[in-house]
What we know:
The protein is mainly beta. It contains 5 helices and 20 strands.
Amino acid sequence: MRSIFALLIATCSVYASAQTDAYIKLYDHHGKHPRIVSITYPGNANTLDMYNSIYGHGAVIENPWVAYRVYMDNRQSLDLYVKAKPQLELDVTGFYTTPEQMKEGYGCDVLWAGKSIAAGSFRGYQNGTPVTIDTVASRTQTVVDKQTVEVIDKDWMYNGHPIQMTQRYSMKPDKRDLYVTIKLEGNKPGDVFCTGIQKLENDNQGFIQPNGVAASWGNNIPDKNHPELVETVGLGIVVAPENIVSVKEDDLNYLVFVKPDANGEINYRVIACGDRETNGFKSPKDWFKFIKKQ
Length: 294
């Protein structure tokens, strides 16, 4: 009986891991783009060099509905990829879907973030605007397993003092959510942090609530070299109640100001969709209704 039970557990584990994937790939001119487990850059490394040395510009994590990449630079922004049908496919497209692959039913990059907070990126906040992770001793991205990636910023100099920060991003095989945990050590009571979601470039509709729930819907052009490819996107965020300080809407974003809990953690979920999903959300009304139930 024990052996049968163990086999069932093992089978479930294999199924779960098969429905999520996470990787970091090196960029190389031979097009092999080998997977690696972890990479660390010194804090004085050139931002553009870091960004371009990784295939896809950072760690990638996916489940059957969506995928995210975490940029390997001072922004550490979350960029979004939406699929036409539920499947794992980023090992094939690498966020750079070709026209031929799109005809075959693959998804693609759907978001143009610009200077916004994108889809749940974590930021500091100074002088009335979100700020990136500019001055650090080192930056590390690590694939923990097929469901989790970590970003570690050592000695992030913020408001004149160093903060040790670990950002953990994880996904499950049966939910479209991206689970985010930010662990901070060395922060001071006066430090202000924020997260949130961007307003879409065109025809944006959205809302933000005092309970840390926000959503947006609209369209944008992810690749400015292909203005004919317009993507309609829905974004959402749900922040843990114990982390919420206040909320704010600005020209680019729906922002939630956050503080660490008693364990030094900030927790939230990012939820996203696109109308390219065959059986997905097709209107802001349905999307907003779904987010408000989270």
